[in-house]
Write a sequence for this structure.
């Protein structure tokens, strides 16, 4: 039996999942030194890059064609929201400098040699520095302006002056008078800003830094889950891929980044709690924490509830079906408390959907934006997405991809992916990249992530930050 305090620090094999995977136990036996094969691992990796370039190019070409033919695009910079404007200056050098440090560390296989705690800490610091550096390409305004934008949450902060309970009771009824950001999400994002103001975090710049630091917790949380389900070697290889992911452009100063961190914590708690060999009270605690975090995350974003599919798949793989009952019960607890306080989650979701239909639908084609949303997905995740799609059948981490893919697919098919998917899909992006470090064959060991994969993702993030002016 493993003590509770070892829940994070112990390397765990995933050979206990099924009889076919017992041979993989050695993959997570501790730090190792795997020689990297340079910038290019093999011809297949080059095909992955060319495939991603083709998909990204096709998406951008379709976006340009749609705007030129006056289709129902509804934005100046399809497939994104905002506008295109090249901005390069001295602060733009900060992000490439951060990327260079991480790339050197990856090339020297630092994550293979460091103790696991250092891998988690290093990945968090790298992800935080990367997100902040991208935001600071626009100077201090890159951190402060998005928080203080007219249609963002901060503009509604005085709505909570009458007290949180009054705010929750009037949230749905007053939806039309709230900013776009507030009325398209549940009420907790604004309550979080209200709470931060009460503890002294008042300036937009300070809020931007705090939100970015919280959002970056997503990376170590995902790594802990991957380590448990896929092995320590896969988690170590994934660390630099997530640390320099292109979608970090929207992680900075984003409430959806906070949602991503909560959702990642939920999935990770479920994975840790469902490990075989855990004491019964550790398993119950993990399942309970998973449910609570998922319920709280659902009060930050309506779409994040789809990651419950990942939790259910994890319990299925590990043959722990009763944990579903525990997680579900605790997931409903925050929603029930919100209902008692005056906010109905189903009513809020219905109001947000009506807002999309009346405010966006007349100007944006659901079919067109479904395709453009997928183009955003390709650009935001970078080349690692293609590599992950190719290796998905070889990874024990498929439950992570199922939940994330279900959330994306539902948004596209339901016609809800008509705007801001680069933000609203943040909770899904990191899970879609898990299979990029999957073993080549079911009985094999995950090869080191080629440097080109990490570098190309970083370059994509730098380019997006340099040419795109987001409204948030």
């Amino acid at each position: 039996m493993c003590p509770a305090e070892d829940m994070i620090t112990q390397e765990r094999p995933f050979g206990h999942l099924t009889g076919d995977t017992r041979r993989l136990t050695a993959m997570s036996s501790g730090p190792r030194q795997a020689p990297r094969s340079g910038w290019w691992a093999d011809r297949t990796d080059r095909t992955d890059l060319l495939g991603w370039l083709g998909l990204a190019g096709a998406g951008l070409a379709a976006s340009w064609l749609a705007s030129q033919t006056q289709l129902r695009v509804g934005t100046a910079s399809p497939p994104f929201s905002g506008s295109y404007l090249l901005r390069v200056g001295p602060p733009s050098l900060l992000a490439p400098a951060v990327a260079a440090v991480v790339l050197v560390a990856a090339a020297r296989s630092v994550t293979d040699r460091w103790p696991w705690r250092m891998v988690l800490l290093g990945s968090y610091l790298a992800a935080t520095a990367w997100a902040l550096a991208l935001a600071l390409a626009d100077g201090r305004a890159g951190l402060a302006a998005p928080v203080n934008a007219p249609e963002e949450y901060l503009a509604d902060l005085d709505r909570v002056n009458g007290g949180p309970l009054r705010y929750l009771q009037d949230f749905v009824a007053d939806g039309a008078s709230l900013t776009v950001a507030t009325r398209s999400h549940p009420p907790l994002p604004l309550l979080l800003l209200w709470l931060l103001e009460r503890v002294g975090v008042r300036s937009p710049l300070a809020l931007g830094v705090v939100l970015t630091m919280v959002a970056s917790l997503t990376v170590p949380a995902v790594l802990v889950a991957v380590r448990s389900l896929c092995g320590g070697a896969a988690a170590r290889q994934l660390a630099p891929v997530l640390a320099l992911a292109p979608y970090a452009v929207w992680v900075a100063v984003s409430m959806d980044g906070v949602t991503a961190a909560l959702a990642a914590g939920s999935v990770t708690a479920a994975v840790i709690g469902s490990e075989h060999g855990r004491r019964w009270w550790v398993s119950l605690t993990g399942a309970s924490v998973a449910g609570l975090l998922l319920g709280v995350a659902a009060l930050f974003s309506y779409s994040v509830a789809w990651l419950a599919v990942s939790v259910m798949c994890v319990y299925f793989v590990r043959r722990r079906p009763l944990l579903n009952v525990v997680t579900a019960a605790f997931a409903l607890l925050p929603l029930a408390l919100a209902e008692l306080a005056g906010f109905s989650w189903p009513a809020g979701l219905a109001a947000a959907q009506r807002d999309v239909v009346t405010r966006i639908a007349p100007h944006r084609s659901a079919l067109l934006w479904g395709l453009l949303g997928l183009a955003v997905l390709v650009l935001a995740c970078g080349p690692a997405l293609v590599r992950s799609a190719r290796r998905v059948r070889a990874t024990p981490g498929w439950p992570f991809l199922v939940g994330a893919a279900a959330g994306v697919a539902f948004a596209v098919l339901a016609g809800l992916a008509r705007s801001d998917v680069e933000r609203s899909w943040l909770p899904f992006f990191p899970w879609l990249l898990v299979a990029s470090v999957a073993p080549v064959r079911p009985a094999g060991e995950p090869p080191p992530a080629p440097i080109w994969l990490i570098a190309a993702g970083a370059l994509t993030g730098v380019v997006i930050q340099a040419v795109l002016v987001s409204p948030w």
